[in-house]
Amino acid sequence: MAYLVAARLEVAAAVIYGGGVDQYLAEKPRCPTMFHFGEKHMHIPVSTLEKLKEQLPEGTLDTYRAGHGFNCLDRESYDPAGARLALKRSVDFFHQHMG
Questions:
Q1: pTM: predicted TM-score of the whole model, two decimal places
Q2: Which residues have C-beta within 8 Å of that of residue 57, sequence separation ≥ 6?
């Protein structure tokens, strides 16, 4: 949803956690965009991340040694270190682009 907001609405910046964006890559974000992906996510192959980097070189893409839902406290796949780092990066990114 955050990717579509970045592509279709007037927002200052967007941060996307996880996958599902590859089907929307024909639409380009209209704002600075950051992506967080778990490297062990079983439904997001490395080829998708490479395609994303190629099509959106201006985007910031970070990966974490974690799986799907690494930032969700209620999931077994929750990764505290990855979640903290992603949050710090996201907050810094928003400060940079939104003040």
A1: 0.89
A2: none
